[in-house]
Amino acid sequence: MCKLFIDADPALWESTTKSLRIDGMVTSVRLETFFWKVLDEIAARDGMNVVQLITRLHHESIDAGHDLGNFTSFLRVCCGRYLALQLSGDVPTDTRLPIAGLDADGILEAESGRVH
Asked: Which residues 6+ apart lie within 8 Å of 73 measured at CB?
């Protein structure tokens, strides 16, 4: 079982730090290559680059009243949720379909029904 993980490309878990500007403030985000690739896919689905996606996630999280004390962990969880929602069929694997066009409330309700 572990061979699937152990023999994967080691570049996937190499960390890279990217500097970006959110509301005029320069910040750095350090993530593994695997997560940068997933964020890039999510961003591309809605015609954004990764910096635009991260900025939007930051703004919408603040607007929702979330504590972003560990924003990097939040980004990792976003990636995991995206992949899990693809596996469950709630988010189409066709990356030409934008995430913004999906029924987020319906997806969250369906997910909640499966979890509880």
From this structure: none
* Token duo for residue 75: 């980004």
What are phi and psi for residue 32, nearest 5 degrees?
A: -75, 155
Token reading at 70: 């560990």
Residues of the chain with pLDDT under 70: 115-116
Coil, strand, or helix at residue 56?
A: helix
Residues of 44-70 as b/e, b for ≥16 C-beta within 10 angstroms?
ebeebebbebbbebbeeeeeeeeeeee
**Single pTM value for the model:** 0.91
